[in-house]
Design goal:
Layout (H helix, E strand, L loop, with lengths): L1 H4 L2 H4 L5 E5 L6 H13 L3 E5 L2 E3 L3 E7 L3 H5 L19 E9 H8 L10
Length: 117
């Protein structure tokens, strides 16, 4: 079924770009490896290690630092301050933000859009 819907010649598109944004520095190494793997196949994928927001700046995120959170790749990484009673080891981290609307306007809006896959 997959091959019928997505023939091989339409899967290896080098005219498509993909952009990802991830604020949690704990994912940087893996995303850099993934970007390298994609690039080596001729795919254009770029991961930005920052948070998207309504303006450029900095934003405080929190690492919960619990065993369960680490087991699940820090799903608890958030801008919400965790309860000190439940998460006494929580730590803050300042993360750079980017004005996402401005970024899209500057980098995507005027780009050539390839034919649908």
């Amino acid at each position: 079924v997959f091959d019928a819907a997505f023939p091989q010649q339409r899967r290896n598109r080098t005219d498509v770009c993909a952009f990802g944004f991830e604020a949690n520095p704990a994912h940087k190494k893996r995303l850099d490896q993934l970007q390298h793997a994609y690039t080596s196949r001729g795919w254009r994928a770029v991961f930005f290690h920052l948070a998207v927001a309504a303006e450029d700046g900095m934003l405080t995120f929190w690492h919960v630092n619990s065993d369960r959170d680490k087991k699940y790749q820090e799903w608890g990484f958030s801008t919400l301050h965790p309860s000190p009673r439940r998460f006494p080891n929580a730590t803050a981290e300042e993360v750079k933000t980017i004005d996402f609307a401005a970024w899209v306007n500057e980098n995507i809006h005027s780009r050539y859009v390839p034919a649908a896959i």
